[in-house]
Amino acid sequence: MPHTVWACACVFWTPWANPARLARCQSCQSRAAFRMLRRSELASKCDILTLEVEHVNAQALEELHLKGVPVQPLPFVVKLIQDKYDQKVHLQKHRIPLPDFLKVDSEAELHEIGEKFGYPMMLKSRFGAYDGKGNAVVSDAASIPAAWEKLGGKAGKKLYVEKWAPFKMELAVMVARGVDETMNVTMRTYPVVHTVQRDSVCFTCLTPPVGVTQKEQELAQKIATDAIKSFGDARGIFGVEMFLLDDGSVLLNEIAPRPHNTGHYTMEACGVDQFEQHLRAVLGLPLGDCHLRVGGAMMVNILGQGSTPELTAQTMAPLRCALRVPDAGIHWYGKDGCVKGRKMGHITVTGFTPASALEQIRPVLKAVDGEGNSSSIEVPHKSSPSVGIIMGSDSDLPTMKDAAVVLDDFGIPYEISIVSAHRTPEYMYEYATTAADRGINVIIAGAGGAAHLPGMVAALTPLPVIGVPVKSSALSGNDSLLSIMQMPKGIPVATVAIGNAANAGLLAVRILGAANPGMRQKMAQFMANEATTVEKKRRKLEQVGWQAYLADSK
């Protein structure tokens, strides 16, 4: 079958040209003229111009675009996004949900807005803000003068203010927008990530986001997609940051028209990473697969601690730690110097589940602040359970505890609860339908007598369900075993021997290990230990004889 191989050569230009070279440019009237000359020269060498940061001369891009040089994302989009107030006005016109916002031209006007919005509220620079720079929290009326001065209001800088969004967590979605062979628009969205900020700078990103329902994730992806649709024919990758509120609603915070920090995880976790996707989009090539190819991924930014040798070594400590972490992707940007607070690199760890990725990256998180200071690290949440152990009654607990013991031995987080199919059917429905959204990957359900619980749960969840027949006083558990085994076609339930919850735990480990090499290694070691135990018993029996063996066993 014939196929096309695509190749792309990239030429880079930076507005921060070498000052010495600028000084030697005798033919230019000014550095600005020299930069324009260099932009024109660059444009002449390219089929298309794109960008990796929005803080550029949008007017110059517009002039090149009008001369017939293809520029993506379109210059008007770059210019629109550069002004955060105009960005919000544009999105509001397209009915994208946003926090309330107003332009503010004076300190007195900010006082009036404070009476309207209430406190706290967020004062923001319209231009040039990034990584928390250009934002100031106005906690009360007394803090207005300091915030106004901090952001340059007294010096005439353009500002606007947003009503405080009482979010329970921050989310982000990368959206790719391109065209197909017939120039029809194509769009792809990456998974939703949960972001945690430290000093207003992105610190960690986790996907899938634990504690965010599927409905909430779909809403976030729709809002992000609708926002990018509003940019006309613009192509490329866009980072969309949002707020998730307690009531499940989502508000858009801001947009970046480029590969974004919250999309770095895609390099290890997705079929096509955000950087390649950006090139595909601007070049009109088919967009690639955005889906996760792992169960979970967590990214942590490495920020500069300072330029001294000691502080530089402290900055790099998490990277050295990550060398010992399975499935860790280490990225050092090679920037000049080690400026405090500057993004110097990042580390992404993947796992079978978000919980396993978080567990794997914990040593790296502890290394971020150095020995003894890990208590100051903001971790998104505690390890979420990968396995749910449920039973119809507390009388089943003496049996079901054996599954918990196995999971403890393998270091797998789990939750355990009483869920009665007959006495609490509403809770059973809620548990089964929300388990996947909460990060559960396997359910172990124990039941005696009629034993409806495993089958009912399996009918409500896409997750694998393992049924444990609990021994009953009437029929010794045979009724439970037969009930669990006789599921109708299309409702599969794995079943273990009567009362053998330990095997249910081991089966859950094997299910999790299907896509987790580390878990498979633990299972292989468990099997080797079992073989060693049996081998020791065999040798002892052969050496001492059956009578001495039994006597010693008493």
From TrEMBL:
Residues 88-283 form the ATP-grasp domain. InterPro entries: Ade2_fungi/plant, ATP-grasp, ATP-grasp_carboxylate-amine, ATP_grasp_subdomain_1, PreATP-grasp_dom_sf, PurE_ClassI, PurE_dom, PurK. Keywords: ATP-binding, Decarboxylase, Lyase, Nucleotide-binding, Purine biosynthesis. The keyword ATP-binding applies. The keyword ATP-binding applies. It catalyses: 5-amino-1-(5-phospho-D-ribosyl)imidazole-4-carboxylate + H(+) = 5-amino-1-(5-phospho-beta-D-ribosyl)imidazole + CO2. Its EC number is 4.1.1.21. It comes from the Eukaryota. Pathway: Purine metabolism; IMP biosynthesis via de novo pathway; 5-amino-1-(5-phospho-D-ribosyl)imidazole-4-carboxylate from 5-amino-1-(5-phospho-D-ribosyl)imidazole (carboxylase route): step 1/1. In the C-terminal section; belongs to the AIR carboxylase family. Class I subfamily. NCBIfam families: purE, purK. HAMAP family: PurE_classI. This is phosphoribosylaminoimidazole carboxylase. It comes from Durusdinium trenchii.
